User: Fold this.
Amino acid sequence: MKNCFVVNLKGEKEPFSLAKVFRSAQQSGASKDLAQKIAIEIERNIYSGIKTSEIFKQVNQLLKKEDKQSSLRFSLREAMRKLGPSGFPFEKYIDDIFSAHGYEVSLNRKIKGKFAMHEIDFLARNEKVLYVGECKYRISPGERIDLAILLAFYAKFLDLKNSNYFNLPKSIALLPIMVTNAKFSSQAVRYANGVGIELLGWKHPLNKGLEYMIEAEQLYPITILPSFKGYLMESCSRAKIMLARDVLAESPEQIARIIGIEKNRILPLVNDAKTLLG
Assistant:
């Protein structure tokens, strides 16, 4: 293995890891043999100072040649960044994810706390918990959710908890949760663990992060489809078509009418969705 460093999304140097390349390819659905082949090919062309984003592109290109479905799944994190530029589509996407996992979800609520009125991104409830949720969408690679954001959110949650708004049976816990497509800073994680804020982000918690919830139910955002164009974001969001599988829920003609585009523009999305979902 070559002894060299790479530059991660935060601009920091770190040792090149062949194992990371192998795992990322395999987690996207590639076979063990294909993942190993890709890792070896990446190692052969690696050089000190290469950006991890460039490695990402190379892995994706190699996957695309031999396993298009895996190459689409490999683009999940980038697809979530394409949900912007505003955070509203991301909130609707989180609604779909929690709903698919058995929660009753309501978005964009204004609730009076003990001392102030608060805007709540979402409430998610099942038979065990009612989450007071905050969404933090990030469009730039390498961004982190820091301590200051957690401090403000927890203050809001405490004011709500101390009000008389939530009248829950003892069997249902009232808990704060912050959801993001990014990662959390180490200080933010320590604070959240200390005060009891649940965190859901990219690869956090370990093996149960946002990507896990997505993969478990194939809840891929529509932006993961290569034929998706940014100008469709507003109309798809308005029509509540946020998942790749949504374009297969009705006939192409019906989906085109719902979104408000011509049928010939929806067919590439349908074909991409079929490739992704098998």
